[in-house]
Amino acid sequence: MQKWFSKFIRSRAFSTLFCIMGVFLTFYLSSRLGILFESFFTINLRLAIFLLLSLICTYMCIYVNAKKDDKKTRKLFDLCGIIFCFFPTMVICFLLFDVCRIIFNFRDNRLYLIPLLLAFGLSVYGFVHAKKIYIKEYAIPIKGNKKSCQTELTAVLLSDIHAGSYVNRSQFHKIMDTVNQIQPDLVFIAGDTFDQDAFGHCDMEGIQRELQQLQAKGRIYAVLGNHDPHSSHPEVRTYFEASGIHLLIDECMETEDFVIAGRDDILGNPARKTLPEILSPNKQEKPLVVIDHNPLGIEDGIKAGAELILCGHTHKGQFFPATLFTKWAYGDRGFYGHFQTGSSHSIVSSGAGYFQLPVRIGTNSEVVVIHINFQ
Q: Do residues 236 and 224 lie in contact, with contact meaning Cβ atoms separated by under 8 Å?
């Protein structure tokens, strides 16, 4: 069932169904807001509200598909994104209120102010909550390299920062500062460091200076995600290397303790190398760590005998009810958290940032700390 839904949610049929549901829910929301306004001001604004909401949704869809870099249109898109944050919570709050209204026979239309205020409060909470950085810790036992004297190691996993519109340089600095306070031995960045069109509208120089302040006793390794610049972009490798980060694009690197394989993103490069192709030059006598932005690659890592597989991408759904759809699409193991299959440990982070809508409800922006114990 999970595999079927995972395939369905990426199909055109789901996109069509999503658009139809979007129109229906926009109409429903316009109706309820119209009833509320009419109860106070005796003015029927349902059509006007419907047209306004439809205009916002249409503009956002057109902008994302057009990928324009004009600063004015970008600011308008950011504003529309903040307004759109209220949509999901308003729909849920109004639906729950309508159920209560049927059960308890509420008749005063002015009571629709209750779900509106509740939705506003939840949205403000989600906006503020998203900016708070949490630390999530895991203890992972790994069969160590006999030649290494290392018995314990602290690594940090970062993913889905999405530097750009809503994750500005100040928020980015907060994430880097959180990592530096941990003083890790290694840092792994599992993709989506940037938002879409990074070289077009992100403060790339400012973000680079922040990345250069990232401190680790050992090295910092990164892979690309589906929102990062494409791996074929001429500047992308140079940019990461100048930031002091080893970018792995379908390649591996051997350290004193590990063989670290970094995979190109499967959505950005469906023809990426297989793990056996990446590992073929290496004898793999040391524990294998695989960094793969999308959890769809976890199975490949398990088959390759990886001791540790690090992913992001899902954001844990970021906010309700997207959390439900994300869990159905990726299953328990690919949705969020730590899972063990045989000797393979997989970790999926909810991400340190947020994408498109700058809210988190029911999820946290997190920095993952992995305490690796060699056995």
A: yes
Tokens representing 72 are 């004015």
Distance CA 203, CA 170 (A): 11
Report the distance separating Cα 190 and Cα 211, nearest Å.
Answer: 14
HSE-up of residue 351 (Cα within 13 Å, Cβ side)? 32
Structure tokens at 218: 């050992």
Separation CA 210–CA 285 (nearest Å):
35
The pair of structure tokens assigned to 317 is 């759904």
How many Å apart are CA 259 and CA 307, to the nearest integer?
Answer: 10
CA dist 223 to 38, 243, 248, Å? Answer: 53, 14, 5
**Rounded Cα–Cα distance for residues 362 and 88 (Å):** 13
d(CA 167, CA 300): 32
Report the C-alpha gap between 193 and 315 in whole angstroms. Answer: 13
pLDDT for 10 equals: 66
Instruction: Encode pLDDT of 74-93 as tens digits.
Output: 777 777 778 888 888 999 99
